[in-house]
Amino acid sequence: MKIGFIGLGAMGQAMATRLLNEGHSLSVWNRTSSKADALVAKGAFRAENPAEVARRSEIVFSMLFDDATTESATFGDQGIAEGLRENGLHICCSTLSLAQARRLRDGHAERGQAYISANVLGRPPAAADGSLFIIASGATDQIERASTLFACLGQRTFNAGSDPLQANLVKLSLNFMIYSTIEQMAEVFTVNEKLGTDPGLVFEIMTNSFYTAPVHRNYGRLMIDRSYDHPGAPVTLGLKDVKMFLEAGGEQGVPLPIASIMRDRLIGAISAGDAERDFVVLQERVRQEAGLEPG
């Protein structure tokens, strides 16, 4: 199949590599062109702009940082919408605000183009080994059309509904649960540390009893190891997601008090100089407030 991929950050790079390794014809574009070098060396075509990717592809994936980059790459000059062929499909995997998700849905519909959201759960290592979870929403026939590609990228695909916005809101909701779980673990590890109990022991008890989910095992391990500077998702990304979740709550008329706490915690981490560190560094803000020495 002729596939396009736009946005070659840590997640996009891993996902595009899997599609290329599966034998698909791959065209790629990234604002920083050098990020496409490894894929081009393996046989991908380096396009000059997103429109060229779309013209060469049956299905175009985008995995971009935020609303602004997604809007520009899709509807800007030489954007995806300009080059998307008849019966072409744009699959956006980015974590976006509901306003931007609505813009993508309606903008493509106005042009008679196919569009679905396919948000993913998992960090770059999961993208590399094809164990992501995919949350897709949009027209059922288009989700089915992409099903073999989703099977290459992830271990399971969930159909969130017929409106592309539904997948976006589910992703924002689950990202919020990750951040709030990190806050919970940080508080639990810290209060036990103050009494002299090794947080590593608390982690062992926790993840070998009732709290065995990947979010506890994976993020908890990063916190115990103080792995704040490994390649991962930065605090700035967490703040972006939580702000969008709060906006969605306001739009839907749903109070989200814990999300407000998480927004403030993330702002505090940025103010402390941790903007580009992995968001598990939130643990250090809790430890600091408890009077403990930095980890």
Automatic annotation (TrEMBL):
The keyword NAD applies. It holds the Pfam family NAD_binding_2. SUPFAM superfamilies: 6-phosphogluconate dehydrogenase C-terminal domain-like, NAD(P)-binding Rossmann-fold domains. InterPro entries: 3-OH-isobutyrate_DH-rel_CS, 6-PGluconate_DH-like_C_sf, 6PGD_dom2, 6PGDH_NADP-bd, HIBADH-like_NADP-bd, HIBADH-related, HIBADH-related_NP60_sf, NAD(P)-bd_dom_sf. Gene3D superfamilies: N-(1-d-carboxylethyl)-l-norvaline Dehydrogenase, domain 2, NAD(P)-binding Rossmann-like Domain. PROSITE patterns: 3_HYDROXYISOBUT_DH. Residues 167-280 form the 3-hydroxyisobutyrate dehydrogenase-like NAD-binding domain. Residues 2-158 form the 6-phosphogluconate dehydrogenase NADP-binding domain. Keywords: NAD, Oxidoreductase. The keyword Oxidoreductase applies. This is NAD(P)-dependent oxidoreductase.
